[in-house]
Amino acid sequence: MTSSQLKIFNTLSREKEIFTPIKPPYVGLYVCGPTVYGDPHLGHTRPAITFDTLFRYLSHLGYKVRYVRNITDVGHLENDADEGEDKIAKKARLEQMEPMEVVQYYTDRYHDFMRALNVKSPSIEPRASGHIMEQLALAESILEKGFAYESNGSLYFDVEKYNKKHNYGELSGRVLEDLISSNRELDGQSEKRSSADFALWKKASPSHIMRWPSRFSEGFPGWHLECTAMSARYLGEKFDIHGGGMDLLFPHHECEIAQATVAHGEGPARYWMHNNMITINGQKMGKSLGNFITLEQFFTGKHELLEQAYSPMTIRFFILQAHYRSTLDFSNEALKAAEKGVQRLFDAIGRIDKITPSDSSGYNVQEFKSRCYEALNDDLNTPILIAQLFDAVKAINSALDGRVSITKDELANFKEFIHIMVYDILGLNDPKSDTDSNTETLDGVMKLLMDIRKQARANKDWGTSDMIRERLTALGIVVKDGKEDASWELTP
Q: Which of 277, 387, 400, 392 is CA-nearest to residue 328?
């Protein structure tokens, strides 16, 4: 197996290409992470699982991967625009909290849910608020090169000037003239020269909480600036793969390319990978539309659209059953099918050791392995890989029935490879297997936590009590309060 066989869909070229890293000794992978002002929902889960799978597979192929996934904690204004309230500041105002208190709380929550989904931590997870200097330096560079202008203490990128020399819209296929004509603004209603221009630095209003000093004004960086600054900081001005959701293709990633082209002479990434949306009744699932279901609600079943609770591995398997570039529509029927499918896979793996080896083999393990690699090498085609794994489930059942023979060595090879594909690459784990082997440890840990929580409730320390319950819920453990004591159980 050679790493050069991997093909990745490159958004810019609109075709699959053979993947080769451009920056030895590691592959540079940058993925736009969450804006941390609320609990993650199913839509947030898809990019996390998609690029976690890519991270796992590249590592399996022998690449050393530097995976950077940012945290947006400043500058993301409402409706992805240059006006309105900062999403985190708005949450802080509503909850009567400090903005960084909101950030810490929801970042911790995000990490808890990602662990429940068996999503690996990235190599580096920078925060926008921790890289204000880099963002200001980038904005200064763009201004010095003549592609930005100051207006009332804010700094804007001049898209029309950029488009005369470069192509604003090369990633998304948008045409600047169409964008401007569809977003006409009356004279005097905006401090921007054109509706297509975007903020590099915004002057903070008197009520704006998050602000930093600059020679332009006391303010904060524009949303698009953070990824360009942080990807260059940790991966260099040109790196291998930039990923994120399809909703970021325009304007966020288009603006990143424009900023990097001016500041560094070329766009930041060789490959752009975008996962498609999760939909509900044909609409994108998201907070802006108010039609989202949080992961906590999935794990507990407490949402009007859910017929039952669904385990983290059911959610992960549900997402992996569709190719990352295709839309995926939520339904209870699809989730129940995923629940049955992943359990069928785990059950079959658990039966491999019950197969009696033969002196000869009627099953071609090498051919099965080749088909699995072909699926993954074809633009990370996890649905085809899963189909191959279910063909292997049939082979396991046939071997148990004596209808297929397999030698001892091939059986060991077969078992090892299935474990790699299911556990290491797809990132699935069998919670039943884990709890069976660690029941005593789990019971002891839970007793300790329940005792701590009981004492907190006795002391009317509701914050600690709620925190323990919420963290356990994120890990797939439901706490039920009774009149005297609390009980707990793993979600199905």
A: 277
Question: Contact 196/164 with Cβ under 8 angstroms?
Answer: no
Residue pLDDT, tens place only, 269-312: 999 999 999 988 777 776 666 678 999 999 999 999 999 999 99
Hey, is 263 helix, strand or coil?
helix
CA 175 to chain centre: 29
Sole residue written with tokens 């453990």: 477
* Alpha-carbon gap, residue 412 to 353, rounded angstroms: 9
Q: Give every strand in the sheet of 328-329, ordered side by side.
A: 283-284, 278-280, 328-329
407, β-bridge pairs? none
Q: Could you give the 3-state DSSP secondary structure of residue 248?
A: helix
Tell me how far apart the alpha carbons of residues 197 and 139 are, in angstroms, rounded to a whole number: 14
Return the percent helix, strand and coil in the chain, to nearest 5. 50, 15, 35
8 A C-beta contact, residue 196 and residue 53: no
Query: 75 with 223: CB under 8 angstroms?
Result: yes
What's the order of all strands across the beta sheet hosting 148-151?
Answer: 148-151, 154-157, 198-203, 219-221
Q: Give the pLDDT confidence of 376-404 residue by residue, as tens digits.
A: 999 999 999 999 999 999 999 999 999 99
Give CA angle at 128 (126, 129), nearest 5°.
Answer: 110
Q: How many Cα atoms occupy the beta-carbon half-sphere of 305 within 13 Å?
A: 14
Cα–Cα dist 400/424, whole Å: 25
- In eight-state DSSP terms, residue 303 is S
Report the distance separating Cα 322 and Cα 39, nearest Å.
24
Look up tokens 């020399």; give the residue: 165
Lay out the sheet containing 269-275: strands in order across: 65-69, 27-31, 239-245, 269-275
Domains delineated in the chain:
3-275 (3.40.50.620), 280-433 (1.20.120.640), 438-490 (no CATH)
C-alpha span between 321 and 338 (Å, rounded)? 8
CA distance 28 to 239: 5
The gap from C-alpha 393 to its chain's centroid, in whole angstroms, comes to 29
Q: What parts of the chain have a pLDDT lower than 70?
A: 1-4, 182-189, 286-290, 432-441, 483-484, 492
HSE, CB side, 13 Å, CA atoms: give it for residue 355.
31
* Cα–Cα dist 461/458, whole Å: 8
| Amino acid (1-letter code) at residue 373 | Y
Q: Is 489 helix (H, G, I), strand (E, B) or coil?
A: strand
Q: Which residues, at least 6 apart from 134, have a Cβ–Cβ distance to it below 8 Å? A: 229, 230, 232, 233
Q: What are phi and psi of 434, to 5 degrees?
A: -65, -45
